[in-house]
Amino acid sequence: MFNVNGVRVYHYSYPVALPILGVVIDNVNIPVLMGISANMRVNVEINATTGGKKCICSMEDQFSEERTTLWLRNFVVRLEELLGLSIPFSIRCVVDTPIRIPALYVYVVCSNSIIKMLSGINDIGAEEHQYLLQSGILVDISLGLNPNLLGGYRYAAELSKSLVYHYGEDVYVLGNVGIELENPKRIVRLRKRVSEIPPRLMSLIVKLLGYSVLELAQYLEEDAVDDVQFYYRLENGVLHVLYGIKVPEEGYPWRWVCDNDYAYLYPIKLKVGN
C-alpha cells in the first residue's frame, strides 16, 4: 500500500481462472472443476478515498464493469452487516485483464482484494486465514450467487492452483493441471428452462454432472486427457437443455462458461503434467 495525494492505493494480482467443468444451476449444489492459466493474470488496483461510501469497478469491458459494480456495492453492504463494521471511505477497483473474462470472476478478484485491504492479510488462501475466504462465500450466498462457482473462483484465485470445489467440503487441489485460453467467441443471455424438466429427470442430470466433475478430475490426476472432449460435449449438451444455448459446432476446446444470466463461449485447452 502507498499513499498518493491522500488516496491509499493497493495492488493485487491473480491468475485467470475458468471452469474446466461444472454446470451452474440455481439452488443446486454441483462441484466445479476450476482451471488456472499459467501465463495470464488479472491485476487489481484499489483506490481508497476518505469520505463517502461509494464502490465502483473501472475497466475497459463496460459490460462487465456495470455488472461488477452492482455486485461489489452489494458485497460491501453485506460484508459490513456480516462483520458489524462500517467502511468510512470510498473504494474504486481498477481492473486490467489480458482477455475478456466473466464478470463474476472480476467481482471475485475485486472482492477478494477488498477483503485483503480491510483485514491487512494478503495471504487469505493460507489455511489459517481461509475463514476470510469463507466469509466472502457467505456474502455471495446472501446475494443469491452460486457458492460452487464463486467458491471455486475465490480459492483458485488465492491458491493459484487448479482445483475441485464443492460447497461445504474441503478443496481438492490439482497441481498438475492448467489451461490455455483466448477471448470468448460470443456471449449470450441464458433462457432458463430448468423448471420445464421433470423433477426425477432433473435429479438424474444433477447426479450425472457431479459424477462427471469427479471422474474428469481423477483422469487429469493420472495425466489422462483423451476423454476431455466427451465431457465438454456432455456439458455443452446439458447447457442447451437447461438454458437453450447452442452446442458449439467446433467441438473441443470450445466450452460454454456460465456467468449468472449470461454465458461466454471460450476455447479452453487443458495442459496436464509438469
What does this structure look like?
The chain is of the alpha+beta class and 274 residues long. It has two domains: 2-179, Ribosomal Protein S5, domain 2 (2-Layer Sandwich); 181-272. Helix content is 38%, strand content 31%. The chain has helices at 62-83, 103-119, 130-142, 147-159, 199-221, 228-243, and strands at 2-4, 7-21, 32-58, 89-96, 162-165, 172-174, 177-181, 186-189, 254-259, 262-272. Strands 1, 2, 3, 4, 5 and 6 form a six-stranded antiparallel β-sheet that branches. Strands 7, 8, 9 and 10 form a four-stranded antiparallel β-sheet that branches. β1 (2-4) and β2 form a beta hairpin. α1 (62-83) packs parallel to α2, α1 (62-83) packs across α3 and α2 packs across α4. The radius of gyration is 18 Å and the shape is globular. The mean pLDDT is 91.
Radius of gyration from CA coordinates: 18 Å
Question: How far is the first residue's CA from the last residue's CA?
Answer: 35 Å
How many DSSP-defined strands?
10
> Strand pairing plus helix content: what structural class?
alpha+beta
Helix content: 25-40%
Domains, number: 2
Describe this structure in a few short sentences.
The protein is α+β, with helices and mostly antiparallel strands. Strands 1, 2, 3, 4, 5 and 6 form a six-stranded antiparallel beta sheet that branches. Strands 7, 8, 9 and 10 form a four-stranded antiparallel beta sheet that branches.
Structural descriptors:
globular; alpha+beta; 274 residues; 4-stranded antiparallel β-sheet; 2 domains; Ribosomal Protein S5, domain 2
